[in-house]
Amino acid sequence: MIVLVFAMVCGLYICAVCLKQLSNVSFQTSQLVQTSPIDSHSLRFVTRIHYPKPQTFNRAECGHNPVRYFAILSMQRSGSGWFETLLNSHNNVSSNGEIFSVLDRRKNISSIIQTLDRVYNLDWFTSASKNECSAAIGFKWMLNQGLLENHKDIVEYFNRRGVSAIFLFRRNPLRRMVSVLANSYDRYAKLLNGTHKSHVHSPAEADALSRYKPVINSTSLIHDLQETENSAAKALEYFNTTRHIVVFYEDLITNQTTLKQVQEFLNIPVKDLSSRQVKIHRGDLSDHIKNWEDINKTLNGTEYEKFLRADY
């Protein structure tokens, strides 16, 4: 009887301790989800590692080094170029640019899969390629480059191959609109000594490009903002079953821990990342929109009014 009573007491004690530990873990996980851009899918799924065997070169002694696969899913003029240069400043990361900007690579799902296989097999060569000893391989993919139209097959590929998705969006789509229009204008105007540049590396170049003030269509503005939001929401819905994180351009600028969290998400050594790119449109939006009064009048009193004064 004494032994039986002792066993019961020990059992109750162990159960109480386990319940307390589970409660603490649940609370900590909930806190992490709320305070970081990493959502529940990045916490639930473990990063899969790979040992690719490229056909175009020999990884030699790095053949035993594991590689993670990722893709940056974004929209034009959302900071993806700058974000990619930050990642590529890490000596273990190779992000290979906007590879699906070429139509032939996305003309059908077969060409998309063939392109993806080349990238993740380390047989895709760009200036960012580190090849032999890369620990994370990826590229950036715009939502309007066949990604949403072929989402079912792409999601299946991501889950089958263990590709992690990094969603990069802007909280302020009005600023993105200014950047899109200004960049489109410069394709033809070539304001920098007859050369078009989507990204610049000096304050002088940034100032020269920012002098152009686009005219925004105030009639379709609210509809255009809604379309941007709908595209982002649709992408998140389609890729909900993948391992992914959501990162905002504004957080990359203002929150020093965001880049650390991205590196932790990719399971690579955390380092200080840097970029030579310089922001083009700085300061108040009123300084960058030619028909500012019309835009201000259109958005005042709507749910998009906050974009008029939000920085970055």
Automatic annotation (TrEMBL):
UniProt xrefs under InterPro entries: Nod_factor_sulfotransferase, P-loop_NTPase, Sulfotransferase_dom
SUPFAM superfamilies recorded: P-loop containing nucleoside triphosphate hydrolases
The protein's Enzyme Commission number: 2.8.2.-
EC category: transferase
The keyword Hydrolase is assigned to this record: yes
Domain Sulfotransferase, first and last residues per copy: 72-282
Keywords associated with the record: Hydrolase, Signal, Transferase
Protein known as: Sulfotransferase
